[in-house]
Specification:
The complex is a heterodimer of chains A (144) and B (138). Chain A has 144 residues and is mainly alpha-helical. Chain A contains 6 helices and 1 strand, in the order βαααααα. Classes of the chains: A mainly alpha (144), B mainly alpha (138).
Chain lengths: 144, 138
Amino acid sequence: MSLDLNNFTPGPALAGGALIGVAVAVLLLLGGRVAGISGIVGGLLRPVAGDRAWRLAFIGGLLASPWVYTALAGPVQPRIDAGWGTLLAAGLLVGIGTRYGAGCTSGHGVCGLSRLSLRSAVATAVFMAAGIATVTVLRHLPGG
Amino acid sequence: MAVLIAALAGLLFGLGLVLSGMVFPAKVQGFLDVAGAWDPSLAFVMAGAIAIGLPAFALARRRRESLAGLPLSLPGATHIDRRLVGGSLLFGIGWGLAGLCPGPALAVLGLGDAKAAAFVAAMLAGMAVYELLERRGR
C-alpha cells in the first residue's frame, strides 16, 4: 500500500462532505426525512399515497446538481471507465443489495453513522470490505 | 413545502458529491484500492458529512416534528441479521465493480451520461426484483 498523493484531495473532500452533511441536516430537520439515496429511490417502487412527490423532488435536485455546479464553478466531466456488462452487473448488485441491506453509502454510511447506529456501522464495514475486496481482485490478482 | 425542502436537499447533496469528487468512479475505486495507490479522499468526505450529521441527528432525536412542521421519525431498526450483511455484501461488490453508488450514479445521469443511465436502469431493475420477491414472500 502507498498513498496516492497526486489524487488525494483532502480540502475539497472535507468541504464537499460538509455540504452533503448540510443536505442531510436540511432534509432531516426541515423535511423530517433521512437522506438515504437507495431508500428514497427504492420507495418509488412502493405505491404509498402521497409519498412520491418529495422523493422525485429530491432526485430532481440531485440530477440538476452537476449543472448548477457547472454554472457556479465550471464544468464537471466525470468519466465512467467500466464496460457496459460490468455496469449492468454492478447496477443490479447495487439495486438488490441496497434494498436487502436497507441502505447505501448515504443511508448507512453518512446518516447511520451520524445517528451512532451499530446496525449501520456493521453495514458500512461490510460494504466497504466487499468493495475493497472487489477492487483488489480486479486490479491486483492475475486474471482479475 | 416538503417538495421544496427535498429538492433543495437533493441539490445540496449533489453539489457536495461533485465538489468532493465522489462523482468520479476512479476516485471512489482509488479509495477502495488499499492494496495499490490509496486515495483516502472518501474517508474525508464521510468525516465532513458526519461532522454536520452528528449534531443534526442529535437535535432530531428530541423532536416529533421537523422545524417546518412535517412529521419526523428516525429509523428504528437495530437488528443485525443475514439480510443486512448479505445485502451490504452484494452492494459492496457492485460498488467496487463500477465505482458507483446510488447518489453519484444519479448525479452523473443528470449530465446525460449513457453509462450512468445503464447503471441506474440496472439498479432500478435490481430494486424491482427485491420488491417482487418481498411481495411474493408476504
